[in-house]
Structures are given as C-alpha cells and as structure tokens.
Design brief:
The complex is a heterodimer of chains A (231) and B (514). Chain A is of the alpha/beta class. Helix content of chain A is 41%, strand content 23%. Chain A has 8 helices and 12 strands. Chain B has helices spanning 4-43, 45-62, 65-82, 95-143, 148-163, 192-204, 247-314, 319-349, 362-372, 374-377, 397-414, 469-479; strands at residues 166-171, 208-209, 221-226, 231-238, 358-360, 382-386, 393-395, 421-428, 431-437, 483-488, 494-501, 503-504. In chain B, helix 2 (45-62) packs antiparallel against helix 3 (65-82), helix 7 (247-314) runs antiparallel to helix 8 and helix 9 crosses helix 11. Classes of the chains: A alpha/beta (231), B alpha+beta (514). Chain A binds chain B through residues 13, 15-16, 19-20, 22-23, 26-27, 57, 83-87, 104-109, 155-158, 191-193, 195-196, 199, 213, 217, 219-220, and chain B through 291, 294-295, 298-310, 312-314, 332, 336, 340, 356, 358-361, 364, 367-368, 392, 397-398, 401, 505, 509-510, 512, 514.
Chain lengths: 231, 514
C-alpha cells in the first residue's frame, strides 16, 4: 500500500460511522461516510474506493440489492457489517458478491485483518502462480502441494478445493461457491461432498496436534483458509 | 358396493306399473272397437284400420313398448276378426286385404317403437333436469350460506323436501373419528345400533343400511360424505316404513352426499389455512420484535467496542490508561455475553428457534464450541475425546455448537483453575451423544431437578452469570428434538449429556468419482 487506501463506510448509525472512521484512520485509511444505500453507491462511483464496509440493515435499500447493483459495474472488495447471528443473511450477501463479513459487535483487530485480506485479493487477482502460508506451499503451475517441504499427494478434487480456498486466502468462501467451483453448477445442494473432502484435505495438509487450524469452518456459511500471518 | 336389494324394490315398482299399463291398453282396445262398430257402417272397414293405427300412436306416447306392441298386435287381430270380410273369422280372402293387414302391422309396430323411444328419452331428459336443478339448489343453499351450520341445515331441509324422507348428518371430528352424536341440523337422532351402521359406512367409504347389502335391517340408508381426500361424515336418510327409494332417487342422494362432503372439506381446508396464516403472522411479529430489540442492543455495544479499539490504539504509550481500557474491554465482553444469552432465551421462548439441518462433522462442532467458550476455558486444560472417523450427521451446526459452548463455559465457571474439563462425542443408535464433565463441586442433590430452569442459580454459584446458560442449552436441544441430562460423577464433579437423534450419512453413499 504505497498511497493511502480509501474506505467507504455505509451505515445508518452515525456513531458506528464515526468510530469506524477513527479506527480506520488510525490504521492509515482515508475514510468516506455514507448514510444511505443510495448515497453509498454514488460515493463508490465517484471516489473509486479500495474497500467498502456495508451495513446490511440500511433503511432505504436492502443490502443484497445494493450488492447486486454494485456488482454490475464494480469489483471493489466489500466487507459486510451484520448484527444478526443467523447464517442465512450472511450467506445471501456473500453469494450476492460480498467478499467477507463481520458480526456486530465486532472486534477491531478482526475487522482490520478481514479488510487486509479482501484488499489483498482485489490487488493480486488470480495471476499469482505460487502461494505460501506457514508450512503450506502451493505451486499452481505444476499442481504441486508441499507441507514442510514434503510433497503431499492430493486427489484432483482435493487439489481443486484447496486451490479455490488458497486463491481466496483469509476470506470466507461459501459452501455453494466451493461446490460450484469444484463439482460444477449442478452440485450446489450436495453439501455432504464438501464436508467429506474438507476432512480428507485437513488430514493431509494440517499438521497433527497443531493448535492453529489452517482450514477454518465458518458454521453454516463456508470455509476460510487462515493465512499464518493473520493472527 | 351392491344395490341389489334396492334394485329388487325398483323392479317390483316397475312390474306393478306395467300391469297397470296393460289394463289401460286393454280398455282402449275395447273403447275403440266399440266406436269402430258404431261408425263402420258409414266409413267402410278399411278406414277402421286408421282408427286402430291412431290408437297405437297415441298409446306409444304414454305407455312403454311392451304394452304398445301388444296393443298393436291385439288391434290387428281385432280388426281382422271383427271387420275384414268374411267377418268373425281370422281368414283373409282378397290379396288387397292381406296387404292392408300386413302394412297395418308393420306401421303399427314401427310407430309404437318410435313413439315409445321418443317419450322415454323425453322422460329421461326431464329426470336429468330435475336432478341438476336439485343439485344446483342444494349447492347454492349450502355453499353460499354465511356459515357452515346454516348451510348444512339448508341442505338437510332441501333433501327432505325432495325425497320425502327424514335426513340426518353425522360429521367427522377434528381428530378424524366419527362424531358420537348427529349434527344439530339433523331431523332425527341415531340409536347406538344405527350409529354403528353409520360408522361402518364411514370407515369403509361405502353405503350401508336399508336398501343395501350391508346391514339391510337398519332403519335408514347411510351414505358416506366422500370428498376429494377423505370421508367428511355420513348422510343418513330415513324414509317412511313402506316407502322405497327408486334408482334415480338413490343416485341423487349419492350426488348430494358427495356435494356435502366437498362442502365440508372446503370449509375444513379454509379453516386450516386461516389457522396457519395466524400462526405465521404472529411468528413473523415475534421475529420482527426480536430482530429490532437485538439491533438496538447490539449497535451501541458495537460502538463501545469499536471505540475501545480506537482508545487502545491511542493509549499505547500510557500504561495506566491501557489498564483501564483493558478493564472496560473485559466488562464489555461480559455485557455482550449477557445480552446474547437474554436474546437467545427470548428466541427460545418465542418459539422461533428452528434447526436448519445440514451435514456436519461432530469434530468441527466440538472445535467450534471450544473457540466460542475460549474466554471461559482459558484457565482449564480440556481433554477432547471424539471417536475417530465418525460419520457425518445432519444437525444444525450453530445450535449444537452454542449448546456445547454453554456447557463448556458452565463447567469452566464451576471448576478451580487448572482442573481438567473433558468432552467426549460419539454416535450410537442413530443419535449423537456429547458429554461434558468437570471436577468441580458437583450438583447438590436437591438442585439437580432445577439446573435447567430459567434464571436458576446454584446456591454456591460463582459471581457473574445470568442463570440462563443451561436453560438455553435445554431449549436449543429440545428444539432440535433431543434432551440434555445432568448428573454427578463418581469421584466428584458434574456431568452433562446431550443426546440428539440424527440422520447419519452412510459411507457407501459417499463414494464419489475423484
């Protein structure tokens, strides 16, 4: 991040906007506030921000609707701020194009880590041929996966699964997204496939007795590959 | 279904009216012959044939075909005997007379046949019309009545006016059994014996009682009110002792029974829809209130936490302030926990906790619960014993995870720092069983039945806590169709067992192409 990154905060609660501004400015962001979905979309169009923080419960527009409209013309990373405990609204937002979510009341460290992760993805795109975090390394060009320098034999499905998660490292990937990417568009209801293969994958790439889980389960939502440098 | 008994009665009526028709036919032949004898002198014997022909045509309009044909034959012979010369013999002398006689026969038979067919189709048409009108009338009166009882009363009155018999209705109760007593709209009550005939018709979905093969000694005819999906009750018809029902009346009554059945079914379905709508509306309301309360409580908490994060950043170089910030953070987390507990309890009480089942790995649920309870567990070693290679099960991950986290936090709060807390999980007999045990003081015998009650706190409970954690576990697990059980361990400490029936994924179904 050579220049200051711009973040747009879209939330109808003035206090949350103000405090997010303080925290984000403290960590080197330029912050723009928007109170409604409509003004938020206008701000995104004119300011071209690096990241968007979007509250799902805006009075003027449904959060899903905002995401759908935004995704028609912009790929800016979006972090959802949600107050609901249940998984459905989050899954709906993620499937509509949001990049990740935090649940209010959120932890500031967690919020900043999420922002970094979705921004990184926005910048790198999918051009990188090599991925590494902690003990795990993936060579996308040669389909080679190593743990602690030892090559690990993965089946085609396991590799495809790991690849999607690694390309979205640090970011939650929904069940339906994974199923679509790995098994094709007709498999989106077959979540048991996913559980079984994630299990296989964990046994192969996670070190036994390791406190740090590489593949984190987001209950009811999906999976997240947690890079070793975050937390 | 057999209507043999009824058909017998119908045939008897037919036979008696046939005899009457023969008598009439005979009488006509005598009258016409007398008339013919009187006028033969002026007209000649050939014109007399036309007179008989006229009689056959006229009879054909009123009588059925057997008497008409007999009438035609008798007329022919009477004409031949009395009028064709030589008279008073059946002998025919001239060729013209023979031809005339043959023509008379053919024309008479043809005319008789045609006219009876015409009149028969006419009377059938009339019968159909009457029947349609009766059905329409019943449907109109019953279906457009402002309420069901008034409609049924109208239907009963209508049936009685049409078939000249008493009618009664026995309806199906909400629990799908036949009512013991007749509906208030009925004009007669059923004895116990008669009711059992009605019950037979109800359970077999077939007519029973008088005029049928089943229990024909009964006083009334019992027709099931057959609707599209179920029998809604029984229509009881009691004609006077000497009165029989003819086939068309029977058919009409059966049509009435179907109509009333459909009417009752419509009413039944409409009531069910209304009930479901009310239920849904009240659930939506409760959900809406909970959502907005949740929003109002959590938004300021989010502001406090975000503010604390900013403050923490700003006071990095001031250790005294850092300590204060740390205390506020700790208190905020505790407040957050209490609010979450209260909201969860409110969701359980409002009945809006509905498990969303999906395939899950118990291992992950245990890990997730330990992460949720990490604060409470920070000073305790946890011994995890989850059976290796457990199959996937269909559960609500969040509900079970939160329940287990509450049990872990409870165990940690009651145990001294450093004492081990054990978690074990297994699947047996189609149920997931998760056990959390500690080496704390255990649960006093008199408190055991109360530990899952709302706001119940043990006499020696450590400070903090709302007395909601365990009742939330109980509510969540019940919503999931399972049970949680508390007990004391031999050797000291408490043990909580969650048992939830689940669908287990068999490994055979999971062999996928790689």
């Amino acid at each position: 991040l050579n220049d200051k990154a711009t973040a747009i905060v879209i939330d109808d609660e003035g206090q949350i906007r103000k405090l997010l501004r303080v925290v984000l400015e403290e960590h080197g962001y330029d912050v723009v506030e928007a109170e409604t979905g409509k003004s938020g979309l206008t701000e995104i169009a004119t300011r071209r921000p690096d990241v968007v923080l979007l509250d799902l419960g805006l009075p003027d527009m449904d959060g899903i609707e905002i995401l759908k409209r935004l995704r028609e013309w912009s790929q800016v990373p979006v972090l959802i701020l949600s107050v609901r405990e249940t998984a459905e609204p989050k899954v709906a937002a993620l499937d509509a194009g949001a990049d990740d979510y935090v649940t209010k009341p959120f932890d500031a460290t967690e919020l900043l880590a999420r922002l970094r992760a979705i921004q990184r993805r926005g910048q790198e795109g999918e051009a990188n041929a090599y991925f590494q975090t902690g003990n795990l390394a993936i060579d996308f060009s040669g389909h080679i996966v190593t743990v602690n320098g030892n090559q690990v034999k993965l089946t085609a499905t396991e590799y495809a699964l790991l690849r999607v998660l690694a390309l979205n490292a640090g970011k939650v990937v929904t069940h339906s997204h994974l199923l679509r990417e790995v098994w094709g568009p007709n498999a989106t209801e077959q979540s048991q496939y996913l559980r079984v293969y994630v299990n296989h994958l964990r046994k192969k790439i996670e070190l036994p007795r390791s406190k740090q889980k590489l593949l984190k389960t987001e209950s009811g939502i999906g999976y997240r590959l947690v890079p070793a440098d975050a937390k | 279904m057999s209507f043999a008994a009824n058909r017998g009665a119908w045939q008897f009526r037919e036979r008696s009216s046939l005899a009457r028709e023969f008598v009439w036919a005979g009488a006509f032949v005598i009258v016409v012959t007398a008339l013919a004898l009187a006028i033969e002198h002026f007209t000649g014997y050939l014109a007399i044939a036309l007179l008989y022909l006229l009689l056959v045509v006229a009879a054909g309009l009123r009588l059925s075909w057997v008497p008409v044909l007999s009438l035609a034959a008798v007329s022919g012979f009477v004409w031949n005997f009395f009028f064709i010369p030589p008279r008073f013999t059946l002998y025919i002398r001239s060729v013209e007379d023979a031809m005339m006689f043959a023509t008379f026969f053919i024309v008479a038979i043809a005319m008789g046949h045609l006219t009876t067919r015409l009149s028969r189709s006419q009377s059938l048409e009339k019968q159909r019309e009457r029947r349609a009108a009766a059905l329409y009338e019943l449907a109109h009166q019953a279906a457009f009545a402002p309420e069901l009882d008034a409609g049924l009363r109208a239907a009963v009155a209508h049936i009685e006016s049409i078939v000249d018999a008493q009618a009664a209705l026995v309806l199906r109760l909400p629990d799908h059994v036949l009512d013991k007593t007749v509906h208030p709209a009925s004009s007669f009550a059923l004895s116990e014996k008669e009711h059992s005939v009605a019950a037979w018709a109800f359970s077999r979905r077939a007519p029973a009682g008088r005029f049928t093969d089943t229990l024909p000694d009964a006083a009334a005819l019992y027709l099931p009110l057959q609707a599209r999906t179920a029998v809604m009750g029984v229509l009881c018809i009691r004609p006077p002792k000497d009165r029989a029902l003819d086939l068309s009346e029977r058919e009409l009554l059966e049509a009435f029974a179907v109509l009333i059945g459909l009417l009752l079914e419509k009413d039944h379905i409409a009531a069910a829809i209304q009930r479901a709508e009310i239920l849904e509306a009240s659930e939506r309301l409760r959900r809406g209130i909970l959502d907005s309360v949740s929003h109002e409580l959590k938004t300021p908490l989010a502001a406090v936490q975000t503010g604390l994060a900013a403050l923490e950043q700003q006071s990095r170089n001031y250790p005294a302030q850092m300590e204060t910030v740390g205390e506020i953070k700790f208190a905020t987390r505790r407040l957050n926990r209490v609010i979450s507990n209260l909201l969860e309890m409110a969701r359980i009480e409002a009945g809006v906790v509905q498990p969303k089942l999906d395939w899950c790995d118990i291992d992950e649920v245990v890990d997730g619960a330990m992460a949720l309870a990490a604060d409470a567990l920070s000073r305790h070693p946890v011994a995890v014993d989850v059976k290796q290679n457990l199959p996937m099960t269909k559960i609500d991950h969040l509900v079970i995870e939160q329940s287990l986290a509450n049990l872990l936090a409870n165990a940690a709060n009651w145990s001294e720092a450093g004492k081990t807390i054990a978690v074990s999980a297994d699947i047996s007999d189609g149920a997931v069983q998760i056990i959390v045990s500690d080496r704390g003081p255990g649960i006093p015998q008199e408190e055991l039945p109360h530990v899952f009650e709302k706001f119940f706190r043990g006499a020696k409970a450590p400070a903090g806590g709302t007395g909601l954690g365990l009742s939330i576990v109980d509510g969540f697990i019940r919503a999931h169709g399972g049970r949680v059980h508390a007990a004391n361990r031999p050797g000291g400490g408490a043990e909580f067992t969650i048992r939830v029936p689940v669908e287990v994924l068999s490994e055979k179904n999971m062999e996928l192409a790689d």
